[in-house]
Amino acid sequence: MTHIDAGAELDPVHPVPLPAPGRAKGLSAAEVAERVARGEVNDVPVRSSRSLGEIVRANVFTRFNAIIGVLWLIMLSVAPFQDSLFGYVIIANTGIGIIQEWRAKKTLDSLAVIGEAKPTVRRDGVAAEVSTSRIVLGDVIEIGPGDKIVVDGACVEADGLEIDESLLTGEADPVVKRRGDAVMSGSFVVAGGGAFTATKVGREAYAAQLAEEASRFTLVHSELRSGISTILKYVTWMMVPTATGLVISQLVVKQHGFKDSVARTVGGIVPMVPEGLVLLTSVAFAIGVIRLGRKQCLVQELPAIEGLARIDTVCLDKTGTLTEGGMDVTELRPLGGADESYVRKVLGALGESDPRPNPSLQAIIDAYPDSEDWRCVESLPFSSARKYSGATFNEGNGESGTWLLGAPDVLLPAGDPALAETDRLNEEGLRVLLLARATGDLDDPDVKKGARPTALVVLEQRLRPDAADILRYFAEQDVRAKVLSGDNAVSVGAVAGKLGLSGAVVDARRLPDEREEMAKSLDKGTVFGRVTPRQKRDMVGALQSRGHTVAMTGDGVNDVLALKDADIGVSMGSGSEATRAVAQIVLLNNSFSTLPSVVAEGRRVIGNITRVATLFLVKTVYSVLLAVLVVCWRVEYPFLPRHLTLLSTLTIGIPAFFLALAPNTERARPHFVRRVMRYSIPSGVIAAIATFVTYLVARHHYTGPDQLNAETSAATLTLFLISMWVLAIIARPYTWWRVALVASMGLAFVVVLIVPWLQHFFALKLVGVEMPWIAVGISVVAAAVLEVLWRWVDRRIPA
């Protein structure tokens, strides 16, 4: 039973009673144990990746594995072992996929635990951090700016508390919360502080119910994955009628032995399936996650690796991204004859009035100790929308006063003499705050009106040592950097200038509201100051409206909306929990220098998969066309499964694995399907025609009982040489290891041709001298046509 104090108030909405006004002590250890025993624990599993069972099912139970599996079972019953090798290759590839994704899962899970924020829970009157899964029903949870609401609850303390529920409701305006108001999990604090009592935990919480519908680990919104799915769909449509025609041709029309006809039919169907392409893509993504995980980079959605590689614009928040979180007070300038010692007392009291100071206020706290005889009567926490904070004090001598601390250009009217000095300091890259004495009450919306400037507080920001190198990297990669900051535009421009970022500096308050006009201004400018949280979101949308792929970096709660709307959101590990929750990529080591690694990893994955996809699809095209030609000419299918297993292994399987994991810095380009098919279709057509021509010539050249085996060997030689030339083209630009890779594949085929037991195993034996040289000649002509065709495609069919 829940203990109810005599003075407790019952909230009409929630079943858990609110404590009496004052500081809530929270549950006792005995009450926590009692709730744990009843199962009233926030036991929602954190799913950063698929379970082992889901990984196995996803890799094993695929459409193409089913097709290959059935054909494999048929071959095991009607043909020699070597004609069933393709089935063992599928088992090996699927096993590799499962192992790699399992390794990626462990990496993700371990990093997710490192990056998980721990809410502050008050128990027995003592506040301590606990993991989200240890929260129980009735716990009192403290919250402040940037904190995410992890369970549903009712507010028991509120000090200027403003909560953004946009991730749940879509409404961007913060909601002011007072004692007794409900708070929903999934929302986050933008200003003020307070505490709430947990009224719904586990799967009953609102955010948990939403999360049941989707896992963090997802492969959606990936052009690469959707493009491959589109290709496979078309392949399936082509494969069914072609395979049907092949079955009828080999089993009915030719009326050869049943087992031989079945073997050659299966030999025609199996290479149509580009099963390794899907698997290799998954492996490449998984290895990318592991590589980035070693650099303390948490990829919360796999397509983020691909997405960041496609960006052409990166929006950077200055604080926490270009500059480190800490600041130092370098100077205090009293205004209007104010007494400096008194100003120091005011600043010390202001620092003490905020339990969760931002970096600027923390620097003031470090510089000016609190005056113990001053008592805070009312406080107004800092808000990035307001650009100032404030407090009312009893000064211990009977006097009281209301003070504001914030941006000078927000608190002062245009033309005020203090602004000229502020501008000069901003031009040096220094940050300036104004201390002003207000004449009205803090709860007055116009409290800043008529405020008397008392002092300027000059702060110096600490530049990140890696920021200049990162901005240089983006410039070299043709990625435009835009700095969006809530600070003074001149000051931000000076900081950007120190880091080597040139371009127009714009005060965001002068930006047009209309999206198209805003987009034009964004294209012209580089540094934008005095940007509100809503403006950041609008600016991301304006850039996207002009076709830009936008990444947004940030660590503050004011960045959340923009991070959520950007194509790729990147958060620092030390940032607020709200930013980490909506970002696709979290830099756990807080190092901006990790970002180029993510871009490079994405480019490696996309560029290499595009390369190897061409290899796989050339095989699919020539397999389908060869089957059609065989049906039309009503001849035996020239290959057994063992021949195409050998060709696929040497010209596709082994090379594709190495090429997919090789370094690649080429910028990712859109239209994946078009770019792959513009090479695959003509190459596959040339390979099929050249091979079939060799086969027809061989049919007229050879006679006798071993005629078909000789014809098959000649056709296999032609197809291998053309496939090797396709591989040689795709392996460009050449490096020593790429040349070695291509050469070793060719050498392996020569070994098969000259070693007697391998000749027998693969049923490959070149008969005579004339026909093999004819096959080589046809291959040379086809290779020349391939070279001309690829150059023509590059010029006439742009990607």
From TrEMBL:
Record-annotated P-type ATPase A domain positions: 119-213
Organism: Streptomyces kaempferi
Stated name of the protein: Cation-translocating P-type ATPase
Localization terms from the record: Cell membrane
Keyword flag Transcription regulation: no
Keyword vocabulary terms for this entry: Membrane, Translocase, Transmembrane, Transmembrane helix
Transmembrane segments: 60-79, 85-102, 234-253, 273-292, 612-631, 643-664, 676-698, 710-730, 737-759, 771-793
Pfam families: E1-E2_ATPase, Hydrolase
Keyword Cell membrane part of the UniProt annotation: no
Membrane topology listed for this record: Multi-pass membrane protein
SUPFAM superfamilies: Calcium ATPase, transduction domain A, Calcium ATPase, transmembrane domain M, HAD-like, Metal cation-transporting ATPase, ATP-binding domain N
Main location: membrane
InterPro entries, sorted: ATPase_P-typ_cyto_dom_N (IPR023299), ATPase_P-typ_P_site (IPR018303), ATPase_P-typ_TM_dom_sf (IPR023298), ATPase_P-typ_transduc_dom_A_sf (IPR008250), ATPase_P-type_domA (IPR059000), HAD-like_sf (IPR036412), HAD_sf (IPR023214), P_typ_ATPase (IPR001757)
